[in-house]
Amino acid sequence: MEFRTSIPIKEEQPKIGYDSKLLLLGSCFVENIGAKLEYHKIRKFQNPFGIFFHPQAIETFLERVVSGYRYFEEDVFFYNERWHCFEAHSALSDPDKDRILDTLNQKLDETRGFLKETSHVVITLGTAWNYTFLETGLSVANCHKLPQKNFRKELSSVASIIHDLKKISGHLEQLNSKAELIFTISPIRHLRDGFVENQHSKSNLISAVHSAGKGTYFPSYEIMMDELRDYRFYAEDMLHPSPVAIDYIWKRFIETWFSEDAMITLAEVENIQKGLAHRPFNPESEAHSSFLKKLKIQEARLREKHPHLKF
């Protein structure tokens, strides 16, 4: 007897392989998947402006990338001894004004170059709750811990999110019409908004993705909420997926999107990674020396097939 429900997910095309390049944008769940891609040596470019939670923040970023926008002094502000940009995460904030501007513009250039060669774009939407800076009337990607009285918090409607998603798709098509667009909803619950408010937010995101008619959808949120509906699959904060849950969702993702050849290479890369992480009892032993030689041979064989691989 099966004691849990399993979400059926059909295989998707075009497949991801070791010749693919993935652009990852969105909430902290992108960071989880990005770490898996990094470990398995899949080429990717991940959240160049840091974590984005709301689709409008992603749309603004891609508009900047496609239009060749340049950031200047009026685009940043000084607060708590650091320069910040409302369109980027605080991870890019800097005590030096010129340096943050250089970083922002460099990230735009790097994204533009990578996007032209990207095979798949994975976008994870985190929340439909949007923050507008009252002084300018503009939506922000990050509040940078300014007092909440400076912002208006609103729940974006399904129609508004659909508009953002269509613009996102349009921006991507301008630079790379061949890139496959994959949407997913973050399984991380934003309970600071409230339990009911979080569900309302996720519902609007899900409805918008399915109504926009752009890209394909991978059900990471549904897997977490249904297949893994037990608190043992959550981290200590009871909000984020545990490592076991992340591993499971990753497994479902590669079953859906990765080619058979890529699955074989994934296993080979993982074997090498585990070997490199192994700590021997005696590093000077003949057995360990032989073990390292075998790893080097495996690495060389993989690089013959995939020259970009580096361990």
Automatic annotation (TrEMBL):
The lineage of its organism: Bacteria, Pseudomonadati, Bacteroidota, Flavobacteriia, Flavobacteriales. It holds the Pfam family GSCFA. This is GSCFA family protein. Residues 21-253 form the GSCFA domain. It comes from the Bacteria. InterPro entries: GSCFA (IPR014982).
